[in-house]
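Recap slide: Molybdate transport system ATP-binding protein, sequence and predicted structure.
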Amino acid sequence: MLTVDVTRTQGSFQIECAFSSAAAGITALFGPSGSGKTSVINMVAGLTVPDGGKIMIHGRPVVDISAGVVLPMERRRIGYVFQDGRLFPHLTVMGNLRYGMGLTPAAERSIPLDAVIELLGIRHLLDRRPAKLSGGEKQRVAIGRALLTSPHLLLMDEPLAALDSNRKDEVLPFIARLPREFDIPILYVTHSMDEILRLADLLVLMEQGRSAAVGTVEDLLNRPDLRHLTGRHEPGAVLQGTVVAHEERYTLSRLMTRAGPLLVPRLDLAEGTAVRVRVLARDVSLAAERPIGLSVQNVYRGTISSLVDAEGPYVDVHLDCQGAPMMSRVTRRAVAELGIEQGRTVYAMVKGVSIARGAVGERP
């Protein structure tokens, strides 16, 4: 378990952050550049010291300002993965991994070398030097080196920020498996909503140095009052579902959600896999009556729960579709012409082709 409740003044910038995470899982700090994400993770790592408060890892205080406790970073048993990997160029992949192991006495090591090599799929890379690795391969090795210190907590500061989308897709599944395979909590910093959707168990929204909201991904991303933090320009709702079938003839996957079945482009996930799906408001159209003769096959009956003014000519219409949230961004003219108002029943239409692969994540 990780508990953070700290304050720190950096010039004119004030950090006030508090949250508590489970014993294993990924806690994500999300916010724009300058919101205080890296400042918080650096206090946890021991790179900077808070002015007040506590930081506890598995019930052990590593910082307690009122009690005069500030453990140096080498005594905190923390692994740190940076944006650029920071591998030793003169060492092979195996040499980098063994360096990580060497930072922890043999009697205190809890994560086996072979288990890390197999999980990260890097056995064929062991004799290579970093210059011969792709960006995704370097990050997998950096993760392995951090894991082999047998840390009580793993910190990851935007580890995928320097990678292109293909390399991100290569590394994300490995990160998602870490908490389950090694029973380790991870504090993960990102400004990518796709990474949040596919990785996070707990979400901490940062705003101007403060932890503005803490909760599950589904709860926070579905709250209208947090829209300015979770995606003012790309609002949407998150649905929970399960992969129930693959339609190979049409290269589609069928998900079952509380709103009803959802057809999306073919997913590389087994039937029975629990997922969450982010459906953007701009990809949801509304009809006053049940539509017929459409190419859109994802149609849901819902009740309008609220209307929220957006920028320009738009209104965000929040729906309750059999207990599942949905959001549609329409024009004020459409609101007037369709008679859209709170409490009215309408039909929401979602084009399956609008659900990008990054919008579907395996539920932790």
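The chain has a mean pLDDT of 91.
The radius of gyration is 23 Å.
(End of recap.)
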